[in-house]
Design brief:
five-stranded antiparallel β-sheet, 2 domains, 36% helix, alpha+beta
Length: 273
């Protein structure tokens, strides 16, 4: 079989279409060389060509680093919690809310139609007095991600609620530190501060309350995980997991007497038959 020397690297090899050492394509290499006028032709070894594979390799490298940069940006946004709504209440408002709830319970028990109306301060005061939020008791946090790969995995899990394991969801629920609710004309914003993987995070959901088939329902409008806005798919997945998943669905079953729950003129309204 005929042997040839590579015009670029000088490698002695069997005749073929490309060099086995440096990878140049002989036809393209000579084509580029022939473009020079005869007096100006350089030494073949000085002519550098980039095979097409190098272009695709460069594109792949750019895409890989861009993906890494986006993942890091997503993680940074997730780890920056948003500020809670500026909600305040007094001990008198807490007592007033407790009295309203007690009167409403008594009316419900005797089957008398009634309605409960609480403004923003009363609602947050009642929640702060009745929610069993995580206090001095602490569960052992999961190890904090220490490598870019584990950090990116955390970001992907946060953006795909349906892929989160039940144990992780339970840990997030048991690590809730604070809940604040801002009431608007016909909607509400719920701000939840919690701990996950030893980090302080926040989840903010804005939407409308309602009742459907005896269950409390929440129609999302917007949301944020930390400072990262949730896209429509992630937002819907988060709300569905909170309200419709098998482990949570029954938690939102309402007493049969409850007819409607809504936000109206910056008040939470609960009415019975």
């Amino acid at each position: 079989m005929d042997m040839i020397d590579c015009p670029k690297c000088g490698f002695h090899q069997k005749q073929g279409d490309e060099c086995l050492r440096c990878g140049i394509v002989f036809a393209r290499y000579h084509s580029a060389f022939d473009k020079f006028p005869a007096p100006m032709r350089p030494d073949l070894k000085d002519v550098t060509l980039q095979p097409k594979t190098h272009i695709f390799r460069s594109i792949y490298r750019i895409f890989r680093w861009a993906s890494l940069a986006v993942s890091i940006l997503v993680l940074v946004l997730i780890l920056v919690p948003t500020a809670a709504p500026p909600v305040s209440y007094t001990p008198e408002q807490v007592q007033q809310a407790e009295a309203k709830v007690q009167d409403f319970k008594e009316s419900t028990q005797i089957g008398r139609p009634d309605s409960l109306a609480m403004d923003e301060s009363e609602l947050n005061g009642w929640l702060g007095n009745n929610l069993a939020l995580k206090g001095s008791e602490r569960i052992a946090p999961a190890p904090t991600p220490k490598t870019p790969e584990s950090a990116i995995l955390l970001a992907k899990k946060a953006l795909a609620p349906e892929s989160a394991a039940a144990a992780e969801l339970q840990q997030a629920q048991s690590s809730v530190r604070d809940v604040k609710i801002a009431l608007h004309e016909d909607s509400m914003t719920v701000h939840v501060a919690f701990e996950l993987y030893g980090k302080s995070l926040s989840l903010e959901l804005a939407g409308r309350l309602g009742v459907q088939d005896g269950y409390l329902r929440f129609e999302p409008i917007s949301g944020k995980l930390g400072s990262l806005p949730l896209l429509a798919g992630s937002l819907k997945g988060t709300v569905d997991r909170l309200f419709s998943s098998p482990e949570n669905r029954e938690k939102f079953r309402l007493p049969p007497q409850i007819q409607d729950i809504r936000i109206e003129q910056r008040q939470l309204i609960v009415s019975t038959h």
